[in-house]
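mind reviewing this stuff:

——
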Amino acid sequence: MPTGHDELLLPREVASIFRVTTRTLWNWEQRGVLVPVRLPTGQKRYRRNDVEALLQAFSGKGTLLEKLRMRGKSCGEIPGF
């Protein structure tokens, strides 16, 4: 049984947490904001601790979506990241 540190989440679960579409997750992956792990079958999963860290990084610093919707920005270029 996975622990909280290594638990993997489905893309639809992560999309639900952030209230975005799975296409938005793909965009975030391209920008390096939230990168999934690949299973041997090629399917994507997200580490729960990565998701929680991203949520915490943006808490109290403006809205998450405002910062992540900045087009063409890598996570290093997003203010406050």
